[in-house]
Amino acid sequence: MPLLSVVRQRHRRSSVMPLPSSVPYSGSLVSLLVVVVFTTMIRSSAESYRVDKYSLLMPNVRPKKMDLYLCTPIRIDPSKSYFIVGFEPKAQGNTSHHMLLYGCSEPGSDDRVWNCGGMEMPSSSKHKGGYMHSNPCKSGFNIMYAWARDAPTLKLPNGVGFKVGGDSQINFLVLQIHYHRMFENDETDNSGIYLHYTEQQLDKQAGVYLLTTNGIIPPNSIEHMETSCPLKEIGKVIHPFAYRVHTHELGKIVAGYRVKNSNGVQKWDLLGKRDPMTPQMFYPIENNITVESGDILAARCTMESRRNTYTRIGTTSDDEMCNFYLMYWVEGTEPLEQHICVSEGSPHYYWYRDPNLTNIPDEEV
Fold first, then answer.
1. How far from 177 is each of 59, 96, 115, CA to CA, in Å?
2. Tell me: the pLDDT tens digits for 256-278?
3. What secondary structure letter does DSSP report for 320?
4. What are the residue numbers of the active site?
5. What are the Cα distances from residue 47, in Å, to 87, 155, 159, 160, 198?
6. Which pTM value belongs to this model?
7. How far is residue 38's CA from residue 265's CA, in Å, rounded to a whole number?
8. Which of 56, 180, 245, 323 sits CB 3.0–4.6 Å from 274 for a disulfide?
9. What is the helix (H) or strand (E) element at residue 181, kind and residue range?
10. 144: nearest Cα among 74, 60, 48
């Protein structure tokens, strides 16, 4: 049986868990680390390759404060490459505000679980919630998947997958969950993601590009949080196939665009537009759009605040976020080295002030 040989990092004081007897021993494990693998064969008539499933779950954590971000890692077997072709969430919106899956060259901590929230605290400092504090990744930061508001399973197009392990730059996967409530003393959580993966080597590699902003939303106002970045990697052509939007409570509409020069005129092609209060899943991009060097990716979040105070972009439930995730594939090459586009946001950055943008769509998009 094909096996994704994954080594889960353990806290230094944790005892070594035995390998389940039903899972064959790979013989190439790192000393004193643990293999915890559960595989289920998944077949689809549309796929010409075998797909198995691996459980990446929180190890029965107990958040002791509001708006706590926790991370837990797994180490990928470096002896060969695997392709993740689907993401099956195991989470509920009344517990988890959102989940992110990072691909890292090195994880942010050696601990089994750590606090990986807002980075206003020094790295590796102790937090009153009981966990060490660090970034999700120490090096090689890549966003691979995001979930919120009870979004369903995501299955990538046939022949497309996120390459991990082997000669890729992704040696670890790190699950981050934002818990928006404090747990009772007898309550624990093992939310997470079932990863659908194959050992079949795929020609189309998936990637995620995030457009986001900083900024402030004034009280009792409608504000546009906007961002844009040119694609600078010469020779690469990306094929977007899904998008996801994310805000907190003030978001009304989030839209993303490809901006392309055509005979001296900028043409804005809609990649996706969504009410962020609907399930925050990855939705298909209907138009067959490609993005290449020289094109611009842009996103806008329309925010409506009825609060009497300013609202800042930040990590807590009372703050706001403006995120547009673009999932894409490339063929015969590596995904983009550029993973994120961030602007200063309101009141410092708007599309109409950007000299590289013209022919901007109507404000009511």
1. 12, 7, 10
2. 999 999 888 999 999 999 999 98
3. B
4. 97-98, 176, 178, 246, 248, 321
5. 16, 11, 8, 11, 11
6. 0.83
7. 54
8. 245
9. none
10. 74
